[in-house]
Design brief:
seven-stranded mixed beta sheet, Aspartate Aminotransferase, domain 2, Aspartate Aminotransferase, domain 1, three-stranded antiparallel beta sheet, alpha/beta, binds pyridoxal-5'-phosphate, 2 domains, single chain
């Protein structure tokens, strides 16, 4: 164990906790073997932490850190965090509102009514969906916060949570922290990365309490039609499942494609909520501003958890969020133009090397198969070592066989760096 290894900011803490757990067990064994009365303080972690999957890429991280230490120019295409700055208008609102003492006290738990009204206006303008801002909108400190906190409201020991895989790791971890059992819904390329509801075992359905769907999808970049959402809503209604749609990438779409909201489906509000975030839509990942909308009773459960663990979203940020939702669109068109150019660059380059990829209609990811005869970890290690380019192995998002044959590229870097990265990968022989 190398204690000098720098903490990488995108490595989950689970990895460190697991190493500590290992040390504690060792310490206990030593203490048992030693007759001395010398007291050793033992920090005991709850068992549930051990159930969160261990971060499997410590070795890759070490290699990357070692390369950087040696002065290598490593290009990272591994993180989903846009490099484009937040539009000026949003920053100006924050600056103005941050100076107003009225915003310095605790905000309300559910969000200021004017923020929830802005969300309702945006939903109506964008999706044609009508929401009651008083009961059908809740502010979130980023949507990850809301996703993690929906689980304790609806899942307990013995319950099953339906989790898409590959997928955003929070669905799995949130379930485990709530003592529930995640049941994987594999997203396979032959099904266009949509879950097959008929493949869910009947006996699991009695215990299933909650399901997540996420389109445009991270990491596969797949999109879903309104027809898919209709089937999801019908399925959730039939089996009394809380249906959650994670629509973080609804605004990151290309070539004229517009992503639908699950709430456009008639009757969806009887069983569904949708999570949204300003992170990707307005390049505001660091701001922590999101919201959940839809079924009032489901939202009430989420809100009850939240009133006990957080105290709402800084009002100046809510004001800035209102500006984003009501007034910012030109900058976003420009952002999408930039992403479109980068997407084309990445996909065209990979295709000129022999891949056969279609251009994704949404997200800022390319999900591509690794060359024949390799698994994703081998491929990612070679690209890192020989091209000094970091990409994400599929197994960061799931454990199914198919996932092992894919890797994810994020095009959240400028075209010059992307081009350089593609050139370097192009020189490798697989
Ligand atoms: C980025 C992302 C989110 C949102 O993150 P927040 O910044 O917490 O709003 C949610 N779901 C997925 C799939 C994401 O990739």
């Amino acid at each position: 164990m190398d204690r000098r290894r720098p903490h990488s900011h995108d490595r989950p803490r689970a990895d460190r906790v697991h190493r500590r757990l290992g040390r504690i067990i060792q310490t206990r064994t030593q203490r048992a073997a030693r007759p001395s009365k010398e007291a050793i303080v033992i920090i005991k972690y709850a068992k549930r932490l051990k159930k969160i999957p261990e971060y499997p890429f410590a070795e890759l991280d070490r290699k990357k850190a070692a390369l950087i230490e040696k002065g290598a120019d490593v290009i990272s295409l591994a993180v989903g965090d846009p490099d484009i700055p937040t539009p000026k208008k949003i920053i100006e609102t924050l600056a103005r509102e941050a100076a107003n003492p009225a915003n310095h006290q605790y905000p309300s738990y559910e969000g200021m009514l004017i923020f929830r009204e802005a969300v309702a206006r945006w939903y109506h303008k964008r999706f044609g969906v009508t929401l009651d801002p008083k009961k059908e909108v809740v502010s979130l400190i980023g949507s990850k916060e809301g996703i993690a906190h929906i689980y304790p409201a609806f899942v307990q020991a013995g319950d099953i949570s339906l989790v898409p895989s590959p997928g955003y790791p929070v669905y799995n971890a949130g379930t485990i922290l709530a003592e529930g059992t995640p049941l994987v819904m594999p997203l396979l390329s032959r099904n266009n990365f949509l879950p097959d509801f008929d493949a869910i075992p009947a006996e699991a359905l009695d215990k299933a309490r909650i399901m997540f769907v996420n389109y445009p999808n991270n990491p596969t970049a797949a999109t879903a039609s309104l027809d898919f959402y209709k089937r999801a809503v019908a399925f959730a209604r039939e089996h009394d499942i809380v249906l959650c749609s994670d629509n973080a990438y609804s605004e990151i779409t290309y070539d004229g494609y517009k992503a639908p909201s699950i709430l456009e489906v008639e009757g969806a509000k009887d069983v569904a909520i949708e999570f949204h975030s300003l992170s990707k839509s307005y390049c505001m990942t660091g701001w922590r501003c999101g919201f959940a909308v839809g079924n009032a009773d489901i939202l009430a459960g989420l809100a009850q958890v939240k009133t006990n663990v957080d105290s709402g979203l800084f009002q100046a940020i809510q004001h800035a969020g209102i500006t984003a939702l009501d007034e910012v669109s030109d900058d976003m068109q420009e952002m999408l133009q930039t992403f479109t150019e980068r997407r084309n660059l990445v996909v065209d380059s990979l295709n000129s090397m022999g891949w056969k990829l279609e251009k994704p209609k949404g997200t800022f990811y390319v999900w591509a198969p690794v060359p024949e005869g390799m698994d994703c970890v081998q491929f990612v290690a070679r690209v890192l070592e020989e091209a000094h380019v970091a990409v994400t192995p599929g197994t960061a998002f799931g454990a199914e066989d198919e996932v092992k044959r894919f890797f994810r590229i994020s095009f959240t870097l400028n075209s010059k760096r992307l081009e350089e990265a593609m050139e370097r990968i192009g020189k490798l022989k697989f």
